[in-house]
Design brief:
3 strands, alpha+beta, elongated
């Protein structure tokens, strides 16, 4: 397996989807472990934008409004996502909550791993 394939597989292991109001879905990556301290004060809009990596069922009408945009699907773009989510606090809150749960689940799993692999004191 080449390096790019390995890196893509490693990144995909940190990916998750969250359902959004309106029927769309967003894909995001859990930040690498070394970045988790940035989340100690909460999941910010910057983090929601930075770790988004895909979406599903987004159309021009979702981004521009039904009276302006068409029902044509729009491919994921970080700049489009940033502009959209920074103006939709309800969506931002849903994604931030999902990311926080993903991080919490990861940390709990790490904690359980450490506890299970700790040498016994017998």
């Amino acid at each position: 397996m080449n390096v790019q394939t390995l890196l893509a597989k490693m990144a995909s292991q940190r990916e998750a989807w969250v359902d959004l109001p309106g029927g769309q879905r967003l894909q995001y990556r859990r930040p690498p472990e070394v970045e988790l301290p940035r989340m100690a004060a909460g999941i910010t809009a910057d983090l929601v934008v930075e770790y988004a990596c895909g979406w599903d069922r987004f159309t021009e009408a979702d981004l521009l409004g039904a009276g302006v945009g068409s029902s044509d699907p729009v491919p994921f773009n970080t700049d489009l996502w940033a502009a959209y989510v920074r103006d939709k606090t309800t969506v931002l809150q849903v994604v931030a909550a999902a990311m926080a749960k993903t991080v919490t689940d990861f940390l709990l799993a790490r904690q359980a791993e450490a506890k299970n692999s700790a040498p016994s004191s017998s």
